Amino acid sequence: MNSDEQAPSSAASHAELDTLTHGAFSASQSQERAQLLKAWLDEQPALTDLVRVHREMSSRDKGAAKVLKEAIDLLKREQHQEALVTEWSNKAQQVLSQHPFVMGDALAWIRDAAKAGAPLSKEPLSQLKASLADRIKSVEDLQQQCMVQRESVHLLMQRMDNLSARDWPDALAALTGLNQDVHRALDALRELTTHADWPHVDLKYPGWIEQSQASLQAAWTAFEAAATLAQAAQADAQAPLPGVAAWDESLRALREGRPVRAAAPVTETPATATATEIATPAAAPAKPEETPEQIALRQAVHAERQALLEQALALTHWVADEASPVEAAEATPAAPAEATPAAPAEPEAEAAAPAEPAPAPAPAGHWEAALPVRQLQQQLRQLRQSWKD
Prior knowledge:
The protein is mainly alpha-helical.
């Protein structure tokens, strides 16, 4: 009884599917069925109809059913891709709408979306990915600027410390430039805090910038106040000193008429100048405006530096190259003292008169270190510092 009922039902189903597929089930040849099914697929039927036709056709013609199987797989992939696009679009919108913006979530979205197979090269995911990448770059650039400005503040404070340890004329000469640099740095710090992405930077950066602003402002306020007192003390001998040791000493010297060492202009020393020529400031005639005390001081400085130069020369010894007896007899004993060793002279430390005429050519030979290289470097470094002081 049941089999009799199922037969008409199956026949009715075949007739319905045959009508749906434009005669694919009633066709007599497999090639004809495949062509009719392809024509039906061009109409983009629903997935449920594809599944029904494929189930019935699989029992009649597996070759023709293969066409339906490929169409079903393609449609399932497209539907899966659409689901991925919807899912990851929603997630991207959530990441972009976060306040504050979290770079870690944005980077995780790009990584996980690619791992899930979402079509990141197609809209709208391609545009969302670009928006996230631009936001990440903007925040990273802002954080990089925070580190740069923080280091700039450290350098400015170091400049203040160095100028506080130098003579007052040197500090006064650099005061205008330092003032401009400090105010530029403070403006740059304020611009960082007004940036559109400032709320989205890592939590450590606002603390860094706030501390840098406070430190620089406090240091500059103290430095500027001391400089104002120093300027007043320079103009009025009865005014109080600024309380900065190096500046106080310079101002006392100015009040007492003692010379104050000022920054000397940087001069180029010829490459062929000898150590003796470099260290001959005392050989120049005294300027008319120099007092006897100034001349004595300059000569004392020259004597001290000449002693340092002799110590530097003692770190090397002269080795004569092989020469004929005639050349050896013509060599002068004073030649080594006029050669050019690695003297620790600094060009900016000199206030020298014009050099004397070049000495006679030294005999053939070369200088060799009298100490190991490391010890020689240490000795020269110490002599160089003494020369600058």
